[in-house]
# Entry
Amino acid sequence: KEVAELLNSIGLSENEQRVYLQLLRGTEGTLTPLAHTTRLPLTTVQSILERLATRGLLQVSTRKSRKMYSA
# Structure
């Protein structure tokens, strides 16, 4: 609950928090598994990942032409 309050205080929406917390639980992930585990539409997760990366909250790397995201 404290983590959610902290993320809320820095301006993350509920969906952004879901994606970010999912990345914190794992090591790294790609778009499709993140959409599946967060139960959000693929395009929504893609937009969220771009916003989080722009804010410097995520690292983005490329492996075998796939983007990998990690928190």
